Amino acid sequence: MSTKETSITLNDVTIEFPVYDADRNFRKYLLKPNIGGIMQAKSKKAKHTAVTALRSLSCHFETGDRIGLIGLNGAGKSTLLHTLAGIYEPIGGELIVNGRVSTLFNTNIGIDPDDTGYRNILTCGLILGMTLPEIRRKLDEIIEFTELQEYIYLPVRTYSSGMLTRLAFAVATSIEPDILLMDENIGAGDASFQAKAAARIRNITSKAQILVLASHSESVLREFCNKAMFLHKGELIAQGDLETVLAEYNRHVAGTM
Ligand SMILES: Nc1ncnc2c1ncn2[C@@H]1O[C@H](COP(=O)(O)OP(=O)(O)OP(=O)(O)O)[C@@H](O)[C@H]1O
Prior knowledge:
- By secondary structure, this protein is an alpha/beta fold.
- The chain has two domains: about 5-100 and about 215-255, Rossmann fold (3-Layer(aba) Sandwich), CATH 3.40.50; about 105-215, Rossmann fold (3-Layer(aba) Sandwich).
- Helices cover about 35% and strands about 25% of the residues.
- The protein is built from eight helices and ten strands.
- The strands form two sheets. A six-stranded mixed beta sheet has the order 6-7-8-4-9-10, with helices on both faces.
- Helix 3 (about 115-125) packs across helix 5 (about 160-170) and helix 4 (about 130-145) crosses helix 5 (about 160-170).
- The model has no long low-confidence stretch (mean pLDDT about 85).
- Adenosine-5'-triphosphate binds near residues 37, 71 and 76.
- InterPro entries: AAA+_ATPase (IPR003593), ABC_transporter-like_ATP-bd (IPR003439), ABC_transporter-like_CS (IPR017871), ABC_transpr_TagH-like (IPR015860), Bact_Polysacc_Export_ATP-bd (IPR050683), P-loop_NTPase (IPR027417).
- Keywords: ATP-binding, Nucleotide-binding.
């Protein structure tokens, strides 16, 4: 665990995606849909469109905060998770993250298909921020959790997608982070594995000091979160305690139907 207090601070953070291959007609019209970030045509010279996925976002979270990210499709929830994980770099503003971060989305990142499951546990563990002694300590438990048995010594390219999910999930959830970033849609294998996975997720989320969870499910949000942020087209519409923000979100959704 880090010596500094675990915290997340965003000051006026903006994330923009340049899109170079948009249809020319699309660039003329630039619709204003209810979902997604804000689209803008860049200068004629730049010849591209940009989607502002997060606009001037400011917030602060500390130990004990379990934040649900709420919003329609394309509101910016995944973008925010990726930004907090250091995968996307803001084009403006400041992002300060104190604490060991772990992600439960895109869990396959870092897996080398030509390497065995066994070696992938070691390399992915290192990528995720574990030390080698820490991984070695957890190795047996991770292998057992995957239930891959002797397949663990075969190259990952020989795995079915469910077997790959088991491996990636087992490694990703073996880290004990200060800050856990999670998308509710982490596929977790077949039905029997899903039940094991759910118990493991509960365990890891309860240990994290800060949890940020993107979800469309009120019951999932109520189970895991005490606070929420409501994003719409990349802008922060409301933040605060979960029930207040959910009510605001539901009023908004009712108003758009
Ligand atoms: N790699 C990318 N390139 C261009 N635009 C992107 C990219 N990733 C996301 N966007 C855009 O950014 C906006 C926010 O997307 P994001 O995935 O963060 O939404 P979300 O709230 O997680 O949506 P959902 O509920 O559908 O998962 C959308 O308009 C999306 O089209």
